[in-house]
Amino acid sequence: MADRTVQGADGGDGDGIRTFPFPVDLSVCGVGMQAGPMGAGRSWHADAPLQRVHRIDFHVVMLFDDGPVRHMIDFAEYEATAGDLLWIRPGQVHRFSDTDEYRGTALTMQPGFLPRATVEATGLYRYDLPPLLHPGPARLTGLRAALDQLQREYEDTATLPLTLHTAVLRHSLTAFLIRLAHLASSSAEAARQQAGTTFTLFRDAVEKGFATNHSVSAYADALGYSRRTLVRAVRAATGETPKGFIDKRVILEAKRLLAHTDMPIGRVGAAVGFPDAANFSKFFHLHTGQTPVTFRAELR
Fold first, then answer.
1. pLDDT, tens only, 183-231
2. Cα(75)–Cα(86) distance, rounded to whole angstroms?
3. Would you give the end-to-end CA distance of the chain in angstroms?
4. CB atoms < 10 A from the CB of 287, how many?
5. Helical spans, DSSP H, in the chain
6. CB 103 within 8 A of CB 65
7. Which distant-in-sequence residues (6+ apart) come within 8 Å of 256 by Cβ?
């Protein structure tokens, strides 16, 4: 199957990370979605080792029947077990576990298969929502029923003309995604409520300012909290210090730039708040055990 590279964030050549397009030619009747059991025949990996970091330009939802399964998405490890779902969105870097067995149902969907109004209503591009979802028994029953129905419609090519078959698939897919989007949104809201307003404000401030501001005191002052109050809130929500939270966000962005682009190491450092390349390399090595050069080389 053909693959491609995408341009770096600096507008240069491809970054060397393989991006796999949706395999329309492998879909039943060539429609813009697939639904079926997980296993060795995952079609978008026809040419790629599962354990290598890569991107896909379509949506993947995996509903697990067994576990645990460890799966990397955007350099974070997620552990899914029976009844959990993983939602990988277009453009996200991910990697399959080389030791865990994937059992369950996988849904893939090509961007553009659903109309714009449905895309907006279901939050298909809400990258702020968690990729790992843990539905309760009632929600899991509804999701399984909707996904089973979608799979039956996908496989039934004999009872309707192609145009009507595609229309039914879009309606069935929409029903499933509405349930999934509600679960993702409510999961995110529950996490925000649990973390508390102080941490939420801090997290949002870090997301906006991490590229230039690494100071806990500066964030505390800007938010109107004492440093001690901020430390308590962040520790209660995440189990780590505010400084640790900031550093993790900086490291994630640095990893993304190193993986996605051909920007020189010095420019990557400057983009995350380190004008001095040597200081950036020391910071990166301290938090990852690797130099930026080594990390990038392992992904190529």
1. 988 887 666 665 568 888 999 999 999 999 999 999 999 999 888 889 8
2. 15
3. 19
4. 14
5. 116-122, 137-155, 162-195, 197-209, 216-223, 227-238, 242-260, 265-271, 277-288, 292-299
6. yes
7. 74, 75, 93
The structure tokens listed for 129 are 């929502």
Which residue, among 254, 250, 245, 238, has the nearest Cα to 295 in the 3D structure?
A: 254
Tokens of 3: 């693959």
* Lookup: tokens for 277: 């390349």
**What are the beta bridge partners of residue 70?**
79
Residues 6 or more apart from 178 whose CB is under 8 A from it? 121, 122
Q: Which amino acid is at 88?
A: I
107: left (phi over 0), alpha (psi -120 to 50) or beta: beta
pTM above 0.70, yes or no: no
